[in-house]
Amino acid sequence: MRHFLSITEIDSLINLVSDARALKKSPFASKDLGRNKTLGLLFFNNSLRTRLSTQKAALNLGMDVMVMSFGKEGWALEYQDGTIMDQGTSEHIREAAQVVSQYCDVIAIRAFAGLKDKEKDEAELVLNGFATYASVPILNMESSLGHPLQALADAITLAEHSKNTKPKVVLSWAPHPKALPHAVANSFVEMMRQQQAEFIITHPKGYELNPAITEGVQIEYDQNKALKDADFVYVKNWSSYLEYGQVLQQDPDWMITQEKLGKAKFMHCLPVRRNVVVEDAVLDGHQSLVVEQANNRTYSAQIVLKKILEEIKE
Amino acid sequence: MRHFLSITEIDSLINLVSDARALKKSPFASKDLGRNKTLGLLFFNNSLRTRLSTQKAALNLGMDVMVMSFGKEGWALEYQDGTIMDQGTSEHIREAAQVVSQYCDVIAIRAFAGLKDKEKDEAELVLNGFATYASVPILNMESSLGHPLQALADAITLAEHSKNTKPKVVLSWAPHPKALPHAVANSFVEMMRQQQAEFIITHPKGYELNPAITEGVQIEYDQNKALKDADFVYVKNWSSYLEYGQVLQQDPDWMITQEKLGKAKFMHCLPVRRNVVVEDAVLDGHQSLVVEQANNRTYSAQIVLKKILEEIKE
Amino acid sequence: MRHFLSITEIDSLINLVSDARALKKSPFASKDLGRNKTLGLLFFNNSLRTRLSTQKAALNLGMDVMVMSFGKEGWALEYQDGTIMDQGTSEHIREAAQVVSQYCDVIAIRAFAGLKDKEKDEAELVLNGFATYASVPILNMESSLGHPLQALADAITLAEHSKNTKPKVVLSWAPHPKALPHAVANSFVEMMRQQQAEFIITHPKGYELNPAITEGVQIEYDQNKALKDADFVYVKNWSSYLEYGQVLQQDPDWMITQEKLGKAKFMHCLPVRRNVVVEDAVLDGHQSLVVEQANNRTYSAQIVLKKILEEIKE
């Protein structure tokens, strides 16, 4: 693969998951592959899991890693073409992307949706700017529209815990005090559309995701009905897409409880707000897969970096 | 050792100091020990010496290091159990500690006392939270109550410069414009209680440290009397413990001068405010051990990491 | 070389450029040289190119790198001698420099001019403070007065693109909305004075650089006349030196256009404000060398680090 911008770009999810699971068994087996190769991690937003897991993945492959909180330690970037840059921005994405490409063999980018301006968020200025102007592969560490490394980690976790070939997987919206982006939910849906599964999304009316992404996926507004006999319940808050970036309601009845969960496995990308999104009993119980999901972030990043490095070598 | 949270937890100070001094002579001798092992440094407060020396110690052992200014680059953590997390905190220590454990073989934590709430500080929420929920060893890089890597470096420095088997060591309070934590003083006292030495603490009335820590140690309110014929004078400011976190006075007469020092060696953990805590002549003179103390920070961290890695390997 | 503080300190520019170009052909050839050696990068100001290229250069030599945003993650430093440090600064440069020297084999420093106080800027408190008190070599990653690694990268770029032995090189001032330091221009002039070239500086009256630096160099106030038949046009804004740190004018007629450029190669250290300093057509055209200049930052840092390491080993 050249860039890894979206979970929709991969050839075969089943093969990638299988390769990741093999690599998880001997994570240091390809340490020669990354020798003298440098991964640059550029953060335009905060990060814990993504920062540490992507860095660890690169180290496992023998790469060097350079980490930068771009927003705090670098220069304010301009994304518009033709601008007279006499205001707040000091450097154009055209130069920034080309320059960073001189020092890094792969560049990983985190740049969240601002949730103020749908058109601007959907243009993915930061990620697409780097993908357009960089001369090296770009890795998406969560952009406005997607979080493919999370979705790939989730696919690995599903594969590890699935007992039948066509599990019932429910993506359930949950309440949250703040307006959150759609990226994780989008990529999870895009990933599930590549799976053998009975897949249902449940959320209150008004919280429909981008219909271009959920096309053909069953949507059920009754959470209890949706959750019935689920094998996996993936929980995530997102703000409204229709009334872009708004928190329409925070109905605590949508919180996931042990009772609602039944016998299903519980999944969440983390960070998670306890007793708002999900009650303590679920997170502290044996049906929670959240730590294993976090663990698989290393192997989702590592398998993608491995494929990229193999392509560079060719 | 599993965790390294306090200087009181070690089996034999004399053996640990002896091992550290051996390692100082050939710092790269165990570079294979840390291969494919990652140390995560998580800072909830600023750091210079601790950050660079702990990182250097890990590199000397062949470890990879991931550094994070957690407060600025990560998520606000919740430490209370059972909370409905609908306010400022985004992630619970239970998840954070387990998650970071997926990417790091050892986690080092710096989290200072807030000095507003004694009970909260004594609960050591951050350090103990990680120690409780992490699945890997935790290393204290200065917590509310202690700075054991500093105390161990001080023990190494004392051993290197002691001319007799029972030196006179004085811990002297000194004035400072800001309220400072008790961590360095606490760990120094705890370390000295494991030494063959004549050990005296001197400070103005009202600056008594936690009596559980100073139990059995001689306290002398007359600084001049305390300093008489000292071999080592360890100087440090701390705020009041009784009137918790208060600066009761800043009497400049308590500043250490060359005259007061006499023939003793001068020690301080740094950073130090010149001509407030100690006069220039002392720091610039040949009796000052402060740079050697800083140097020994590498070997105190390295010997502790080495012991932890050896235990992991078993 | 011991320290690398200024481009004027090198023995032979032509030899250093030649060595850098050789090293660029096999950047990993000296990976043993840096084994067990640590480079500390201390930033008192933001950085993109310098941060990543210097880090990459060190990795190419097999060094370990520790990066610190000193201003944000460390302690406020005191530079004045004899001060009673009872105000905002917590640590004196004397201690800081000696302490960092315990953990790093080479220390690289970035500390910009404040542009408020000429005398203070010219004292180079941070860089000179570290150079005076550190016990290891200091590398200038842009100080108040100079940016020698940039100038060396520019010399490499000039050598790579020069078609004749005495090219015409013009340093042209350009407009900018903010007051910028003189460091890049100073070092470029100091570097050009060591070159076989016809070298002219052009700027509006009032923007004369420090005459001690431009001594003997032709200054032409008519930009068009200066640019005539140039082989290389190096563009850079700087604030007034005479009316220290002031923006005297921002006349857009001084912006570099394709028409003005003629057949010359365009150079700029980046970041650059498009359509203020230079029009899009120039940056996007084939005469622009800015990306190659950025690329050569790696090799300018690497050759300097290599010389320093070779001297340490002796």
Automatic annotation (TrEMBL), chains A, B, C:
Record keywords, A-Z: Amino-acid biosynthesis, Arginine biosynthesis, Transferase
Protein residues bound to carbamoyl phosphate: 47-50, 75, 110, 147-150, 269-270, 297
Any matching Pfam family: OTCace
Superkingdom: Bacteria
EC number: 2.1.3.11
Segments forming domain Aspartate/ornithine carbamoyltransferase Asp/Orn-binding: 184-305
Positions bound to N(2)-succinyl-L-ornithine: 142, 176, 236, 273
InterPro entries the UniProt entry points to: ArgF'-like (IPR043696), Asp/Orn_carbamoyltranf_P-bd (IPR006132), Asp/Orn_carbamoylTrfase (IPR006130), Asp/Orn_carbamoylTrfase_sf (IPR036901), Asp_carbamoyltransf_Asp/Orn-bd (IPR006131)
Gene3D superfamilies reported for this sequence: Aspartate/ornithine carbamoyltransferase
Tagged with keyword Ion transport: no
GO process annotations (BP): citrulline biosynthetic process; L-arginine biosynthetic process via ornithine
Associated pathway: Amino-acid biosynthesis; L-arginine biosynthesis
Reaction(s) catalysed by this chain's protein: N(2)-succinyl-L-ornithine + carbamoyl phosphate = N(2)-succinyl-L-citrulline + phosphate + H(+)
Stretches assigned to the Aspartate/ornithine carbamoyltransferase carbamoyl-P binding domain: 2-160
Gene Ontology MF terms: amino acid binding; ornithine carbamoyltransferase activity
Top EC group: transferase
Function: Catalyzes the transfer of the carbamoyl group from carbamoyl phosphate to the delta-amino group of N(2)-succinyl-L-ornithine to produce N(2)-succinyl-L-citrulline. Is essential for arginine biosynthesis.
Family named by the database record: Belongs to the aspartate/ornithine carbamoyltransferase superfamily. SOTCase family.
Quaternary structure note: Homotrimer.
The protein's name: N-succinylornithine carbamoyltransferase
Species whose genome carries this gene: Ulvibacterium marinum
Gene behind this protein: argF'
